[in-house]
Every structure is written in C-alpha cells, then in structure tokens.
Design a protein that fits this description.
single chain; about 120 residues; mainly alpha; Aminoglycoside 3'-phosphotransferase, Chain: A, domain 2; two-stranded antiparallel sheet; 4 strands; about 10% strand
Amino acid sequence: MISGLKPDITHSFLHRDIRPDNILYRDGRLFVIDAETCEFGDPLNDLARINLEWHYWEMYDCLLDGYKSVMRIDTDNELFYFYQLESLAEILDMHFNHGCANSTTPFFMDKVKKTKRVLLY
C-alpha cells in the first residue's frame, strides 16, 4: 500500500537535520547551519523527521506554520507516517549500531527505550 503513495513535491531542498542546535538567531534573522545531510525530496519527509525528534520543541509549531505558508503540507498524509518510520529506523541504527547518542528529546528517548525493550526481548 505504501509503495503506491507518491509525494506531492519531490524537488524541494531538504535540510534533514533541523533542530535547535542547527538554528542561529542574529539581528532578527534565523540561519540554518550544518548542511551535511541536505538532499532534494519531499518536504513532508523533513517535517516528519523534525516531528519525530523534536515533537516537544517549542519551535515545532512555528516550523510547521512556515512550511504551510509556502506549500501544501498535510501532516495527516500516510506518507508523513511512512517518513517517520523511515527516519526512526535510520536514527535507531545510528544509536544502536554507531554509538551516536546525541538526542536529548524526551519523546525520542522514550521511543528508543521502548524499541530497545522490544529488540532485547
């Protein structure tokens, strides 16, 4: 079923690592830094990753509004949940197989603990 889903927009610039550490504020302007994971694709993918890792971040709603102000974004779209699953798999791989434990989000850490329990038992 998921393989038949097609993104509405596929040629948008994606940062793929938007988080508080990668946003600078200076002279009334925001700057996004650390572009090593950038690629082109569906903006819903970028937003799904932000939602997954930074759900409790107070700026999430502002980012969502920003995305919605320039393009049609539907977070009820099945692709949004597929992208979250895809991102979670990638993040869990980094944590479990590559020792990258840099996320401090309570939501994300809770996901890791639950997933780890499932993997261990």
